[in-house]
Amino acid sequence: MAEHSKQRVDADNNFLKTQTQALARNRITAESDSVAELRDANTAKLRQLRLAKEASDRMVALAAPPKKARKKPARI
Q1: Cα separations (Å) of 20 from 16, 17, 24, 26?
Q2: Cα-based distances in Å from 34 to 16, 25, 44, 56
Q3: Is this structure's pTM higher than 0.70?
């Protein structure tokens, strides 16, 4: 087995350190991206439900007969 020079060993160690940091950063980025995607999907679903409910409420309001205004009793 050939021994490597100190310079080669140092270079390999620095490379592995940099590679490990990059892998950790990529993992954290991927996790935060997945959380953001889930949040955006949930927000879109809730918005769709809210819009459907508002549309339903408008349809019910249009279908209901208008309420008659009560006259105030005359003061004597």
Answers
A1: 6, 5, 6, 10
A2: 27, 14, 15, 33
A3: no
